[in-house]
Amino acid sequence: MFGLFARKDPVCGMKEEKGKGFEKSGKWFCSEQCSKGYEKEAKQTKHSHGCC
Ligand SMILES: [Zn+2]
What is the pLDDT averaged over residues 12-20? Predict the structure, then answer.
């Protein structure tokens, strides 16, 4: 099982590394590009599953 501290970039799957990347909305991203991609995807998911 992964510990609470082992987070990874939900976009590219890179493991969190100290001194690299940044945190946004409780998630870790390796780069600005990945966080933007994640936000984009989240919005699209909301739309496609927007039943309620
Ligand atoms: Zn990434």
Answer: 93
Asked if the structure places residue 6 within a domain, the reply is: no
- Per the CB < 8 A criterion, the answer to whether 34 and 40 are in contact is no
Q: Choose among 36, 3, 2: nearest CA to 22.
A: 36
CA 37 to centroid of ligand 1, rounded, Å? 9
1: CA distance to ligand 1 center in Å?
22
Provide mean pLDDT across the span 16-43. Answer: 92
Q: Which structural domain range is residue 47 located in?
A: 21-52
